[in-house]
Write a structure and sequence with these properties.
Elements: H1 17-30, H2 41-49, H3 55-68, H4 70-79, H5 86-109, H6 116-134, H7 137-142, H8 148-169, H9 177-207, H10 212-240
Helix pairs in contact: 1-4, 1-10, 3-9, 4-6, 5-8, 5-9, 6-8, 6-10
Length: 241
């Protein structure tokens, strides 16, 4: 996908309030990144204490994590921003799913994690990267367009390490580990589809507005700011930890 240049068009239809709430909500959440990859105290305690195969609870936890995972949603929002056909959307979302599923499962199974501050800073960078890509910055600055499919897959791998690192931090039990991990991963994909459906519903209506070009520019700048906020918080946390 080559992101089209954003155009400043005259404002016609009003900016959909649902989109304002979506982008602002994701931005404000990212501005408080202490919650990055976090779960509630109850969920954390459950992961730490449960043993044996628990398919339904881990399905729920996976779906909940994705639906409330603002960093994943911001990146996904950026990925589909200029995708109109369902085949295109399906291709990119599948690449992202393959990436984060692979490293999430492999990371926990082989007990390989990355420092939470480092991986969350990288995930913040993925949001910045995608916003810049949507703004046409790489072509304007360097005269080249990076392969967006490859980038989506690579960042999917990195997002998966964010998931695996957090699960390892919570000390998940080895009893029933594989089926629980698979259930969690399926839950993540269910949550991703639910979030994607909501985003596409809003995006479809927004794209019909004649003012889409101008407002899309602002939305991507806002998304990039959120990514920088997440990166900055995590790097400061790494420095003082």
């Amino acid at each position: 996908m080559n992101s089209p240049n954003l155009r400043r068009t005259a404002a016609g239809a009003p900016f959909p309030w649902a989109l304002i709430l979506l982008v602002l909500g994701l931005f404000l959440t990212a501005a408080a990144p202490a919650l990055a990859h976090g779960v509630t105290l109850g969920d954390k305690g459950y992961i730490q204490e449960v043993t044996g195969v628990k398919i339904i609870p881990f399905l729920y936890l996976g779906a909940k994590h994705m639906v409330t995972g603002y960093d994943h949603l911001l990146f996904l929002f950026g990925v589909i921003f200029f995708l109109y056909g369902m085949k295109q959307i399906g291709t990119y979302v599948t690449l992202f799913a393959i990436g984060h599923s692979t490293t999430m499962l492999a990371g926990v199974w082989f007990n390989f994690g990355i420092n939470s501050y480092v991986i969350d800073a990288i995930i913040g960078f993925s949001v910045v990267y995608k916003a810049l890509d949507n703004l046409g910055a790489f072509r304007a600055w360097f005269g080249v367009q990076p392969n967006t499919k490859v980038a989506t897959l690579i960042f999917g791998f990195l997002h998966g390490f964010g998931l695996s690192s957090k699960i390892l931090d919570y000390g998940i039990s080895a009893d029933g580990l594989l089926p629980n991990l698979l259930a969690f991963n399926v839950g993540v994909e269910i949550g991703q589809l639910l979030a994607l459906a909501a985003i596409l519903l809003v995006m479809t209506r927004w794209r019909a507005s004649p003012s889409f070009g101008r407002q899309a520019y602002a939305a991507n700048v806002l998304m990039m700011t959120a990514g920088f906020a997440l990166m900055g918080y995590q790097l400061v946390g790494l420095a003082v930890a």
